[in-house]
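User: I'm writing a short report section on ligand binding and want a predicted complex to refer to. Could you take this sequence and flavin-adenine dinucleotide and write out the structure as tokens? A short remark afterwards would be nice.
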Amino acid sequence: MWNYPHRFAVIVIGGGHAGCEAAHASAKMGCSTLLLTINLDTIGKLSCNPSIGGTAKGHLVREIDALGGIMGKVADKTSIHSRLLNGSKGPAVRSPRSQQDKALYQLTMKETLEDLENLTIQQGSVESLIISNDQVVGVTTDLGIAYEADCVIIAAGTFMRGLMHIGTKESSGGRSGEKASFGLSKCLTNLGFKLGRLKTGTPPRISKMHVDFSLMEEQKTEEHVYFSFDAPSAPLEKRSCFITYTSKETKCLVEKHLHLSPMYCGKIAAKGPRYCPSIEDKMVRFHEKERHQIFVEPEGLHTSELYINGISTSLPIWVQHEMLKTIPGLEKSQIMRPAYAIEYDFALSGQIFSSLETKLISHLFFAGQINGTTGYEEAAAQGLIAGINAALKAQNKPPFLIERWEGYIGVMIDDLISTELFEPYRMFTSRAEHRLLLRQDNADLRLREKAFSLGNLLSEEQKKRLREKKTILANTKKHLAKTFVAVEGKTLSLEQLLRRPENTYQTLLNHYPEKLEDHGKNINEDIEYDAKYFGYIARQEQEIARLRDLQNVPIPRGFSFSSVTGLRKEALEALNTFSPENLQTASRIAGVTYADISILLIHLKKNGSL
Ligand code: FAD
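Assistant: Sure. The structure tokens for the complex follow:
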């Protein structure tokens, strides 16, 4: 073993979406950081769909950007098609989504990281962790190099004992064409971590030659949809997506060959994401449905590869060929990369704190797919929080936490630490109780100020712009309340008018241009939503105050729940599994009732823990 001559503050294992954000955050916060990844050419690789964002996932990217992360900026720079999803629905569920030039996304991400001070990037596969007194102090790689560090973040994605399936063919790998990682799983199990298996899958990529786009519906890009709150980057040339559908023949074919699908012939036991079902699952679970929608998405400006969104499968390759022949527009298409499913190890829930540090080994953090999530955005958001907290830990500072009521990132982490996962976790707007407060348009107002304390994660310019925006909002709200106009024989304030469902800030601006200022789409919308949903927002704020009270009751580390008399057996088991850090998290654990929380509260008060 060769000891690497430099000691790092933070080592990040894995250059996927979690790893990139973690390495960026840690380095920006002034920590000497090492990013170790199996293959430098796959940094930031979009393993599955060539797109970022979408419902709730777009919220996560906006929050990452608000906190100084990079996913949104790289996605904006490399976008070839973008849309604001749910544009006709309420503001809480509107979310940006962008189609990426896949190769350019990777290159831009790599270049962004390479330009960072404090960040060393090296190719290497981590085999094992070096532990001393229940604390991680470094890692070793397959090349026999030992690196020392104050903190280590594992962001190994789908690579831990990854096993790929195409029909009855199995092969080991972390993703198509890349080797799996075995050492890490073994090392974590030996340390006492409990690992489980999950599964995910991807559709075939086909060549656009021989595709008949005239049989499909074209979906054009929308203008001015961005993830980043900062200056928009120069746009790339745009491409359209296309919509087609499966047919009766597709259904017959898939049903006839179900016995060849590893999921249905018993070869894959692990659970996949319910909300990204394979075509086999769709045909079985939604048997009555005549057809299923398929999006045909470009993979980039300089490739003819198309991603066939909606037919993820692990059926044999010849069935995949036959299946394409049954889909209008794709009858003559040719597969460039086959669809496949992958099983991989993840850490069962209950083993991390809300800082993403593990409970078993101090200074060790988990981020991304290893925590049971699926999706680039979920991974990147955790990477950012793990990177920030590893840097803070290395600097002997308290952790940085986002609460459930502050952001989707807080909702996700709170769910991960208080819920048993039976399938890969993905973000939905329905998971957030305070949706009207946690809109994608106001992520900067909710979170940016909070990140100002984190060293150089945000620039002076970004701070200045946020403060200016806040001033505009406060002044405009005051102005709306005290500016009156005559409407239908009554005198009403502009604020009252804006609360009417038929009015938007833009319509008021059109009617009273001399009384209102145009602050640009983003600020105009913030003003409008805050006025329109005033009543709901006030109610959500009351509910948050109640949650805050519970949040403020900490449960000491290592607390013995068995010493509390009166707790029901079910609650005791659940509390022991998740060892919550405070009463708010405890109250969210399945099996723990409000009566149990009252008993805990009385006990903590009586025993001087408060
Ligand atoms: P990854 O992006 O997987 O990155 C892991 C990184 O860790 C890689 O760079 C790898 O080289 C590196 N690494 C691993 N082990 C080591 C080691 N020992 N030493 C050094 N480096 C290491 N998500 C969805 O939301 N919907 C889907 O339908 C979907 N389908 C998918 C289908 C497939 C086939 C795959 C592979 C993934 C799919 N995903 C899907 C998941 C999505 O790709 C992941 O959620 C996301 O990429 C996770 O990000 P991550 O950073 O945790 O890991």
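A remark for your report: The two ends are 49 Å apart (CA to CA). The mean pLDDT is 93.
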